[in-house]
């Protein structure tokens, strides 16, 4: 039986075979399997060397200094370390924080946790485009604002914030600017040396690396105070204790290196695939693109299908296309996505929305097959609804 076409790359990507090969060499007795913190023998030295080489490769891809990267278990932990860590470290300077209503749950839940403990949070509403504008952010800043957190690429919409403009607004305020960039590598150029950002959360499994590993970028020049959230051992300069998973870090380094090598070529291919898919799916009337049509990455599209229930469409597509109704973190929730609600979409359209995301291993034939399946399923569901009306 033919497997469904995988169009849920925003949820996770398969590990690139080249990454898996590099990881395998750091697991078994004949490989580099040691504990990087073991400083008394060659096994530890080799593991530490591999970890630092991976850190350097990620840093080179992002245009930053390797010393500005702290390893974490993923972007969720990096978000927690950045948001809670800065809020707690700067509590004497102010208790006002800013984020938006369409952030990833890892960010939203951190702010809710802080709000319940006495911090004041301004929740910016992006409107129909799904984006926070610089003037909107400037109006929200206060003298006691210590942290602003906005994502680079929205994981449900694919919309892209103007980090340069937003960062410039924050820079003049004295607040720290944190960016969740889990979805950014591979989908857009990301040069941290040129962006006015202070902290950036990163993930491996969104760009063909392994799950369970990520990093937090901390700009050295900014000297941002951060309270550690995990204690025990003092690893990563005391910011994140825990034995480093050598094989996973090597995998993240290789994955980011391949992203750098692919660059514009890969992004151009994603744009062609997305346009091919949209051309075919839009042959059906009543299809709407959610979010800004221009300021977006080529890898993620969120479409609303008038007169169709999104969950019913997912079930109708299950044998042919693997896609989602939004973030994988919310896949068991029947309510409309908080992101789509944040756009001001009526519940009927929010419930009728599906996210399709493309990646390195998506082919033109797969796109055509998926588009045909979507068109057929929408026609069937609308026909069934009309007959029962």
Overall residue-averaged pLDDT value: 94
Report the span from N to C terminus: 35 Å
Q: Segments where pLDDT lies below 50 for 5+ residues?
A: none
> Tell me, what's the shape?
globular
Count of runs of 4 or more consecutive helical residues:
11
> Which strand order spans the largest sheet, edge to edge or round the barrel?
2-8-7-6-5-3-4
Count all strands and give the number.
12
**Helix/strand/pairing category:** alpha/beta
Q: How large is the share of residues in beta strands?
A: 5-15%
Please tell me about this protein's structure.
With 389 residues, the protein is an alpha/beta fold. Helix content is 39%, strand content 13%. The protein contains eleven helices and twelve strands. The strands form three sheets. It has a seven-stranded mixed β-sheet, with helices on both faces. It has a three-stranded antiparallel β-sheet with strand order 9-10-12. It has a two-stranded parallel ribbon with strand order 1-11. The radius of gyration is 22 Å and the shape is globular.
Features:
7-stranded mixed β-sheet, alpha/beta, 389 residues
In short:
This protein is an alpha/beta fold and 389 residues long.
Blueprint of the fold:
Elements: E1 5-6, H1 17-24, H2 42-62, E2 69-72, H3 75-89, E3 96-100, H4 105-115, E4 120-124, H5 134-140, E5 145-149, H6 163-171, E6 176-180, E7 199-203, E8 214-218, H7 246-281, E9 287-289, E10 300-305, H8 310-317, E11 321-322, H9 338-342, H10 347-351, E12 353-357, H11 364-388
Helix pairs in contact: 1-7, 2-7, 3-4, 5-6, 7-11, 8-11
